[in-house]
Every structure is written in C-alpha cells, then in structure tokens.
C-alpha cells in the first residue's frame, strides 16, 4: 500500500512538471530591439571671434558756432554760425566678439575714420566795415577713432546668408586739423581741437558663410558723434565748436570664429554619440 502511494505521488509530480514546461514553451521569448543611436551636436554658433572691416563713409557736418570780435568765451562774446560739408573718406577697424547663440552676438570694435576734408563758410561782419556783412571761407579736415560696444540680433540663416540688425554705444576721439579762415583776401589760421565725445551707432547687414569658421560681412552703419571743440582763438575770432557729425558707412569685412563648430555652413557638427537604453518588445 505504501509503495502504491509513493508511485501515485511520483506520477502526479511528473505530470505537473510536464504541464509547467509545456505552458512555458507556449510563451514567446522577449526580443531586444536597439533604438537608433542618438547623436550629440556641437552648438554651431557659440564662441569667440575676431573681425576686420574696411568701409567707405561720408559725413554730415551739423551747423557749428564760434565767438567773434570779442572776449574769446562763449559766455561773453558775440556768436556766429559756421556751415560746411565734409568729403568722403575710407576707414578700417578691428574687433573682438562672442557669438552667444544662433540669434545673438556682441563685440567690441575700434575703427579709425580716415581724414575727411571740410569746406565751410561763415557769415559775419566785414573787417573793413563792421556795418557790412561779409562771407568768409573755411578749410580744415577731421579724423576720428571710434570705440563701440555692440550687440546684434541675427534673423536666421537662409542658404548661407544671415541678415542682422544691431546697435552700439561708446565714444569717439575727434581730431580737427588747423582751420584756415579767409575773408576779404586775408587769411587767418586757427589751431584745431581734439578730444573724446559720446557716440552711438545703428547697423544692418548680412553675413555669408564661407567656411565653418569664416564669414563674409557686408552692411551699413550710421554713427552719430556728439558736438565738441573744433578750433581755437585767433585774431579776434574763436573758439569754435561743431554741432556734431553724422557718419554713414558702407562696410565690408571678415569674421573668424575660433574652434570647430560647423561641418558645413549652417549645419551643426556631430561630436559624440549618446548611449541609449535597449527597448524590449514581445
């Protein structure tokens, strides 16, 4: 009897084990599918850059003022006005900047505004007869160093072209040469003045990607230089001040960005592959 029970229990155990293996065999084994590798890209726009520019500019002289025939101070002397025009000139500059992201960059620029000739005239009393009015001619020239801190908003890249607008603020060191005043066939020379003045600028243009590190930049800049001392006292006339100078510039230059970044113009360069977790599916 005992042997019969053992045999019965052993048979039941073997039957249960077979049923379990059969049920497990019916279950599908999990299949591991690897997700595609994710690529990490370098930001193609951030980083330091240097720039160099040349320009052709024309300046607008705002009406100036001078003291005539009296104590050479603007507080006590009688005043006259001086009008005139400035010739076109060439200039150039350099700068150091940082591209913050694809829509914003900033730089510090230093430009030398080449010498522009001044031709003006003044209306005042005649030397021969103070009751009469005479017109005199004035000749001089000016040059300036323009130092600006600038910020630019870039408006997207289209087939390698990136249009932008910008603004700058800073100062200008203006230097006037000697002014020669001629009236009734007599000429007088006034020493030119120099000094720092407040200045600001507005810009617009576009850059074109030549390589992943080099951009060609073409644009327009309007700069305003505040008025200041123009010439000194001589022969009963002076000193004189200009009312300010507006400078219109057509500019062209190159910007070189340090380091890598773009595998081609406008495209980010892959730098690493990020690991991803495997995905299990039935």
UniProtKB/TrEMBL annotation:
Q: Which residues form a coiled coil?
A: none
Annotated keywords: Signal
InterPro entries under this entry? Beta-barrel_OMP, OMP/PagP_B-barrel
The yes or no answer to whether the keyword Coiled coil is present is no
| Superkingdom of this protein's organism | Bacteria
Q: Name one Pfam family in it.
A: OMP_b-brl
Query: Which region is the signal sequence?
Result: 1-24
Q: Which residue numbers delimit the Outer membrane protein beta-barrel domain?
A: 36-258
Tell me if Glycosyltransferase is a UniProt keyword of this record. no
Gene3D superfamilies in UniProt = 2.40.160.20
- What is the protein name for this chain? Porin family protein
Organism of provenance? Mesorhizobium liriopis
Question: What lineage is on file?
Answer: Bacteria, Pseudomonadati, Pseudomonadota, Alphaproteobacteria, Hyphomicrobiales
């Amino acid at each position: 009897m005992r042997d019969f029970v053992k045999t019965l229990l052993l048979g039941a155990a073997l039957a249960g084990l077979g049923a379990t293996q059969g049920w497990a065999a019916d279950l599908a084994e999990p299949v591991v599918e690897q997700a595609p590798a994710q690529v990490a890209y370098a930001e193609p726009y951030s980083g330091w850059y240097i720039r160099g520019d040349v320009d052709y500019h024309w300046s607008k002289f705002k009406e100036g003022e001078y003291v005539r025939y009296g104590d050479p101070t603007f507080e006590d002397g009688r005043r006259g006005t001086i009008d005139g025009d400035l010739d076109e000139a060439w200039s150039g500059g350099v700068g150091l900047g940082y591209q913050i992201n694809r829509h914003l960059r900033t730089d510090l620029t230093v430009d030398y505004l080449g010498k522009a000739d001044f031709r003006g005239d003044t209306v005042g009393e005649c030397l021969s007869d103070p009751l009469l009015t005479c017109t005199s001619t004035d000749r001089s020239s000016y040059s300036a160093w323009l130092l600006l801190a600038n910020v630019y908003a870039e408006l997207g890249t289209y087939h390698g072209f990136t249009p932008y607008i910008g603004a700058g603020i800073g100062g200008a060191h203006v230097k006037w040469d000697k002014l020669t005043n001629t009236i009734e066939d007599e000429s007088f020379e006034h020493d030119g003045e120099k000094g720092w003045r407040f200045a600001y600028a507005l810009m617009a243009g576009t850059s074109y990607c030549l390589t992943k590190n080099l951009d060609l930049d073409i644009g327009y800049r309007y700069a305003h230089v505040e008025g200041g001392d123009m010439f000194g006292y001589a022969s009963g006339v002076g000193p004189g001040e200009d009312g300010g100078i507006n400078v219109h510039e057509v500019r062209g230059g190159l910007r070189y960005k340090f380091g890598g970044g773009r595998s081609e113009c406008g495209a980010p360069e892959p730098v690493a592959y990020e690991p991803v977790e495997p995905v299990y599916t039935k």
